[in-house]
Amino acid sequence: MAARPRAPNPASPPPVAALFFARQSADITDEGKAELARLAKTLKNARQLELHGYAGDGDPVDDRRVALARALAVRSHLIDLGVTAKMDLIIATLPRRSAITTEHVDIVIPSE
C-alpha cells in the first residue's frame, strides 16, 4: 500500500522551484515542463525530494484531489526525466484568500 500524502512541514527548506498550474488543473504547462527539464540534472543528485502540491480555489474535497493530482503529475514527469530520488508527496489546500497562489507545486530538497 502506498504511503499517504503528508501535510507540509512548516520547517521545510525553501523550494528549489515552483510550478504553476491553471485553475483546478493538474496538466503541466510547457513552461513547467521546460523548468523541470532544466532542474532535472540538479534533482538527479538529490537522495530525497518533497513535492508540495497546493490547490484551494474550489470545494475542499476537489482541492485535495487536484493538489494530489498535481504532485503526482510532477513526480511522473521527473521520473520520465530520469530523477530517481525518493519523492514524498505532500499536499495542502489553501483558502482562496491565501497570501500565496494556491495553484502550484513546490519542489523541496529536504535537509538531511
What features would you describe in this structure?
This protein has 112 residues and is α+β, with helices and mostly antiparallel strands. It has one domain: 2-Layer Sandwich (60s Ribosomal Protein L30, Chain: A). It is built from two helices and four strands. α2 links the parallel β2 and β3. The protein is globular. The mean pLDDT is 85.
**Tally the helices: what do you get?**
2
Largest beta sheet: strand ordering:
1-4-2-3
Morphology: globular
Strand content: 15-25%
Question: Mean pLDDT, rounded to whole units?
Answer: 85
| Architecture per CATH nomenclature, i.e. the level-2 architecture | 2-Layer Sandwich
- Measure the end-to-end span: 26 Å
N-to-C SSE string, H for helix and E for strand: EHEHEE
Domain count: the total is 1
CATH class: Alpha Beta
| Main beta-sheet annotation | 4 strands, mixed
Low-pLDDT stretches are: none
Give a brief outline of the structure.
The protein is α+β, with helices and mostly antiparallel strands and 112 residues long.
Observed structural traits:
2 helices, 4-stranded mixed beta sheet, 112 residues, globular, alpha+beta, 60s Ribosomal Protein L30, Chain: A
How do the strands and helices of this protein lay out in sequence?
Layout: E1 17-20, H1 30-44, E2 48-55, H2 60-80, E3 86-93, E4 104-108
Parallel strand pairs: 2-3
Antiparallel strand pairs: 1-4, 2-4
